[in-house]
Design a protein that fits this description.
This protein is an alpha+beta fold and 205 residues long. It folds into 2 domains: 1-33; 36-204, Lipid/polyisoprenoid-binding, YceI-like (Lipocalin, Beta Barrel). Helix content is 28%, strand content 41%. The chain has a 10-stranded antiparallel β-sheet with strand order 3-4-6-7-8-9-10-1-2-5. The termini are far apart.
């Protein structure tokens, strides 16, 4: 009889223990439910172009960014891959008014219907992805790498402007800045590759 009572007591304790564990697990799942969105005000979009045969860097940025966020998401990839962007070229800034004016008029102005750069991102789990950009009537992809730490997403990639039929725009800005793009060898050159660096904060909701 005592053995039966002892067995029932042990069984009862085990049942209570399992029940408690399930309740704690369920509660933990509940409290871990959240979603992310993007803070467009935190976005920074920088670029580096190159001039002269020595390939001197010319840095700039775009001050404005418009985002069309598809939906809040529980992970970064889902959120970023559902978002489209629109970057007005009028917001280009190099801390040089004359250069900014020439880029708007002789570079982007030499392109077809390019008042803005539009497109979207697609990222993979291995820290790589593609940046699809529509410019000069052409849509093409830029291979990128990225990091995501402390809810800050940072990407880098290099655009080959020839992939957007940019030869005419390159020739146009080189002509407008002919002497400024001369190096020590006296050759004026504007390169077709442009490095892109951008970052944005993810906000937990």
């Amino acid at each position: 009889m005592k053995k039966n009572i002892l067995s029932l007591t042990i069984l009862f304790v085990l049942l209570i223990s399992v029940s408690c564990k399930k309740e704690v697990k369920s509660e933990n799942n509940k409290t871990s439910e959240f979603s992310y969105t993007l803070d467009s005000k935190s976005a920074k979009i920088g670029w580096t172009a190159y001039k002269t045969t020595e390939k001197l860097a010319v840095k700039g940025e775009f001050k404005d960014l418009n985002l069309k966020i598809g939906k809040d998401a529980s992970n970064a990839a889902e959120l970023i891959n559902s978002t489209e962007f629109n970057i007005p070229v009028s917001s280009i800034f190099t801390n040089n008014d004359d250069r900014d004016s020439k880029l708007k008029q002789f570079f982007f102005g030499a392109m077809k219907n390019t008042t803005a750069l539009t497109g979207k991102l697609n990222i993979n789990e291995d820290k790589t992805g593609t940046l699809t950009v529509t410019m000069n009537g052409v849509s093409n992809e830029v291979p990128i790498t990225y990091t995501l730490e402390n809810n800050v997403f940072i990407l880098t990639g290099t655009m080959d402007l020839n992939n957007w039929d940019g030869q005419e725009a390159i020739a146009s800005i080189n002509k407008a800045c002919f002497d400024l793009h001369k190096g020590a060898d006296g050759v004026s050159k504007t390169w077709n590759d442009v490095q892109i660096d951008a970052s944005i904060n993810l906000v937990k909701k």
